[in-house]
Design goal:
This protein is of the alpha+beta class. It has six helices and eight strands. The chain has a four-stranded antiparallel sheet. Strands 6-7-5-8 form a four-stranded antiparallel sheet. Strand 6 and strand 7 form a beta hairpin. The radius of gyration is 16 Å and the shape is globular.
Length: 172
C-alpha cells in the first residue's frame, strides 16, 4: 500500500463547497483506505495499492459525481511530499508566507519557471523543485504579487494547485 496525498484545486472558494466529512465519505466510497482530510481546503490523504494515474482519474471522477463540479487534483505520494517539505529552499521568515505550487504536468511547471524570468522584481522568491515550484511572498500578498498573478492564469487551473508549507506539514 502506498500513502497518497490528493490536493484538490479550487474548493471551498467561490461557489464550490466540499465539506471535509463529505470528502472523506466520498473517498471511502471509492475504496480508498486510511482516509484523512486536513483543514477545509481540499486536502485528502489515503492509502491504496493502485497506481497514481488510475487513482487520479478515479478521485476526480468521484468528486465530479458527488459534488457536481469539474474537478482537478494534483496527486502525489506522502514520500514525495515529505521530500518537498524537506527541500523547501528559503528560511522561514515571520512576515512571509511559504508556499509550494504543485503541478501534474511537468511542461506546465517548466513554462511557469521560464515565465518567472520576465516578472518584475517584487518582494517574493521563486525556485523550481521536484515537480513543484517553491514560492515565498509577504503575508497578505498571495494574490497580488507578480508570481501570484502568473499562476492564477486560467490555463494553469487544471494542472496546478498551491499549498502553504505549514498545511503540507499537517498532511504527513
Amino acid at each position: 500500500m502506498t500513502r497518497f496525498i490528493a490536493l484538490l484545486r479550487g474548493v471551498n472558494v467561490g461557489k464550490i463547497t466540499v465539506k471535509s466529512a463529505d470528502l472523506a465519505d466520498m473517498a471511502r466510497g471509492l475504496g480508498l483506505d486510511d482516509v484523512r482530510t486536513v483543514l477545509a481546503s481540499g486536502n485528502l490523504a489515503f492509502s491504496s495499492s493502485d497506481t497514481a494515474a488510475p487513482l487520479k482519474k478515479r478521485v476526480e471522477g468521484g468528486l465530479r459525481d458527488r459534488f457536481g463540479y469539474d474537478a482537478w487534483i494534483v496527486l502525489t505520494t506522502a514520500d514525495h511530499l515529505a521530500d518537498v517539505i524537506d527541500a523547501f529552499p528559503f528560511p522561514e521568515r515571520d512576515a512571509y508566507q511559504p508556499y509550494v505550487l504543485f503541478g501534474s504536468d511537468g511542461k506546465v511547471l517548466e513554462e511557469i519557471e521560464a515565465a518567472t524570468a520576465d516578472l518584475p522584481n517584487a518582494d517574493e522568491r521563486v525556485e523550481r523543485g521536484d515537480r513543484v515550484v517553491y514560492w515565498e511572498c509577504p503575508k497578505g500578498a498571495s494574490t497580488d504579487t507578480p508570481f501570484a498573478k502568473l499562476i492564477a492564469k486560467p490555463k494553469y487551473k487544471s494542472t496546478t494547485t498551491t499549498r502553504n508549507l505549514r498545511t503540507l506539514r499537517k498532511l504527513l
